[in-house]
Predict the 3D structure of the following.
Amino acid sequence: MRKLIAITILILTLLLLFNGGCRPDGQEPSPLPQPTPSPGPAPSGGTSGDLELEGFQRTTLEEASQLIGVPVHAPAYLPDGYEVRGVYLKDTGSFTEWIVVMLISDEELVQEDGRYNEKMRLTIYWHDVGGLKMPWAERVQIGDGYGMLEKGDDHNDLSWIVRPGRRLVLSAEKDIPTKELARIAESVVPPPEDMLAAEIYPAESIVVPQGETGTVTISLTSQALKLMEVSVSQIETQLPGVSVRISPDKFSLAPGEGIEVKADVKVSSTAPPPSWPRWSPPTEEEPFPPPPSLAITEPAYYRLTFDIYYTHPADGEKKSDKASVSIKLRFKEPPPLPPGMVTLEEAQKAVKFPIAIQLPAYLPEGTEPPFVRLTLTSDEPRGATVHYATFDVMLVPEPVVSGPPRDMEGEKTTIHKKPGIIGTNRVDWWAYDLHYAIVSDQVPASEQLLIAESMMQIAPGSG
């Protein structure tokens, strides 16, 4: 009996072992399902959030400068104990598309769950079109400029622009004061705007009389860290009777080196002076929209443009870029400003509406652009009268007035669908709190209407 019991126990034990731990095909048993572990809380501190540095290469400021070709500096001021602990660089294949990230902290960097524990992060975007249009953010003074502070749950972002397209973002933990962020931002010396700084002298325009030669100076300075090859050429604009000689036109520039390139502009005695093309209104069958900013506000000129091509080592290979400078060329000095008159710039500062963009694109025969002079009204809010050779344009603020007075004599009309009156020697109309008028004893009413229709009208606040 004891043997039977022992044999039975042995058989049951073998059966349990076979069913629980072995499979008849000799494979390992399938594991029992296990609960999915919780990811746990995110590491405390840090400014990375979910922003990964994928596509970035770890480097140093010195190496990044050499790869890009221009110096990249750490902030000149950081709080006690803080320093740049890591530098990351993203190369998008163009000098204008680099992204540099500096991880800043008062302790060594530790990576956990793919995120670093830096307490501040400075990101430099070489080219960014976002700007600072952040109505939800707080405006912060940075030296003579400003930035926009976005407050997050665990960190703040201070963004500022050092030039169009060059945006910097300083991200920091919540306990770092805003004044400290502004002080750090002010101490940042941004990378040079361009590898090659180019300027032209005179800065705006040059007068070269017919039969004479004038000289333009193009000043070039290398801001790159390595030798660059440079060539200068004038864009072929086919100016009749005008020739340009550039010296030198090909050369090398060492880091920090500058050079002055001379461009001799020779104008023949028979060269036709510059003139503005005349704009003609469309026919009756065509629509008559106001032409966009075709008004002429200065004497005619030719545009001389110079292209500066340069090659430079960057990221282990040679890259090419281009800079351009230009200047206005006239054959004679513009006429002096008549006594008692103001310039367009002075008039614009005195009034609260745009002047230049609202001036007429159409001028009748016998009237050459630009206008002759400009005066201001004495009453507040101030208006402007723009005097052409054969007619005047009046722009006078009349808030809340939307049409002519009931007792105003003349034939009713519309200008850009706004109510107007054709008078004895003038056309008046009202739009957007402005009283417009074309006044002339020489130009007939039909031509005055064409002048009026060729003017743009700007709604308040539209820029």
Notes: Confidence is low (pLDDT under 50) at residues 1-5, 14-46. The chain has three domains: 57-187, 196-330, 344-453.
